[in-house]
Design goal:
It is a single chain. This protein has 437 residues and is mainly α. The protein is 50% helix and 2% strand. The chain has 17 helices and 4 strands. The strands form 2 sheets. It has a two-stranded antiparallel sheet with strand order 1-2. It has a two-stranded antiparallel ribbon with strand order 3-4. Strand 3 and strand 4 form a beta hairpin. It starts with 59 loop residues before the first strand and ends with a helix.
Length: 437
């Protein structure tokens, strides 16, 4: 048995065929204004003769709250939630309808289910033939649009995602051929080795100087965070050498970029690269490019500008929710700063989910920020900002029930994204705003 989302007008039966007690209905008889002319099922639509179908008593529970899909086949707007609630507004049957209605209903359901697959997080898996099909015989990517489509719409097997991230985070030039990539790999390996040796030699100096003090301070901060980084992941369990690689690459980046330094949380982001790419050279340069591209948001001024933009977007999309956050003294959005800094990694239920979300929010790159004018102080909007808003909207009923700021931070600490519904909603909002830009 299944719930069939059909309208009353779709039922090919007469009023006399339904034996429904008045007590079973949530509406009065006077509220029902269905005329015989409204029933548009012709005898020719039936796949069997009327005499072959004995009319049997059926019990139908009518829930009239929700607008059911009609002739236009417009689906009700899907509001993503962190936990899917039961659908409303359906006709529940005890016995199967006539064959013709059943066939039409199954056909309708198949169309509706197919259209919901992406929204609910079921996405196709990228195949090797699809991936290699966007390259020519020299190994040059000739279909960049399909590549970006794969990043947004597909799940990737790990061996292909390793390659996909190398392009996404600019370790490879998007239009490079195989030979050019081989040369770049050798070049970047030498450059990384030079940086590793440089700071290691500074530590070996007997005389204390400014550079040695700086490197020692970096090591102290990073050594506290590295042992706690993804320690339950197979990449680190029983493999202390991988934790050492993580530490060395973090120190190398901070040594090479003293104006940025080390910000707590960088360890989590670099770990995403190491685990996904499984190559320390490609992981380091991908991570480095990512941080440098988003450096504005790894300092308090840039981060606050982004949080202010999220607050403005929340107010635009759900003024009641924003008012509640203001009452809770949370309209500064500081409670979600970790979401932005770590790319929603800790808010993802699994590491694989974190990788999917991180891939999507970076597939619409920082260079593809929506340039806006007139939205308060915020002129740049990115997909991760809309994801914050989508999460808040999905949890609005919970947030509206909070009594103080502590409730917000406790909820934030327990939040786990289990599917792609919130980011699908975020993409919808992002695309709507992009049209205004």
């Amino acid at each position: 048995e299944c719930d069939l989302p059909v309208k009353e007008s779709d039922l090919p039966v007469k009023e006399s065929d339904l034996h429904i007690k008045e007590s079973d209905l949530s509406v009065k008889e006077s509220d029902l204004s269905v005329k015989e002319s409204d029933l548009s099922v012709k005898e020719s639509d039936l796949s069997v003769k009327e005499g072959d179908l004995p009319v049997k008593e059926q019990c139908i529970d009518v829930v009239p709250e929700e607008k059911l899909p009609g002739g236009s086949r417009d689906m009700p707007r899907y509001t993503p939630s962190l936990q899917h609630s039961p659908s409303r507004g359906v006709l529940q049957k005890d016995r199967p309808p006539s064959p013709s209605l059943f066939d039409r209903s199954i056909e309708f359901l198949k169309r509706e289910i197919d259209s919901l697959k992406f929204t609910l997080g079921t996405r196709p898996m990228l195949t090797h033939s699809e991936w290699f099909g966007i390259f020519n015989s020299d190994g040059q990517m000739i279909d960049t649009e399909s590549y970006r489509h794969f990043l947004l719409e597909y799940d990737w097997p790990s061996e292909l995602l390793q390659e996909g991230w190398k392009y996404l985070f600019h370790y490879y030039d998007i239009l490079s051929n195989h030979q050019e990539r081989v040369l770049k790999e050798k070049e970047k390996e030498k450059e990384l080795e030079h940086l590793l040796v440089a700071w290691s030699q500074i530590l070996e100096l007997e005389k204390v100087n400014v550079e040695k003090t700086r490197v020692e301070k970096l090591l102290y901060l990073i050594n506290k965070d590295v042992p706690r980084t993804d320690r339950d992941h197979d990449f680190y369990i029983g493999k202390p050498e991988n934790s050492e690689i993580l530490r060395d690459l973090l120190v190398t980046f901070c040594f090479a970029n003293p104006d940025i330094g080390y910000v707590q949380g960088m360890n989590e982001v670099l770990s995403l690269f190491l685990v996904t790419v499984e190559n320390k050279v490609a992981a380091y340069w991908g991570f480095s490019n990512y941080i440098l591209r988003n450096r504005l948001f790894f300092n308090s001024t840039g981060l606050m500008a982004k949080l202010n933009g999220i607050a403005e977007l929340t107010n635009v999309h759900d003024a009641e929710l924003y008012t509640k956050l203001k009452q809770l003294d949370c309209s500064n959005m500081l409670f979600c700063q970790r979401w932005i800094l770590l790319g929603f990694k800790r808010e993802s239920k699994t590491f694989d989910m974190a990788v999917k979300i991180f891939t999507m929010i970076n597939s619409l790159e920082a260079t593809h920020y929506i340039q806006l004018h007139g939205l308060g102080k915020c002129e740049l909007l990115s997909l991760d900002m809309f994801l914050v808003v989508a999460i808040l909207i999905a949890a609005r009923s919970t947030i509206l029930s909070f009594s103080d700021q502590t409730d917000v931070y406790q909820w934030t600490g327990k939040l786990k994204l289990t599917d792609m519904s919130a980011i699908c909603h975020a993409r919808q909002m992002y695309q709507e705003w992009a049209k205004r830009a």
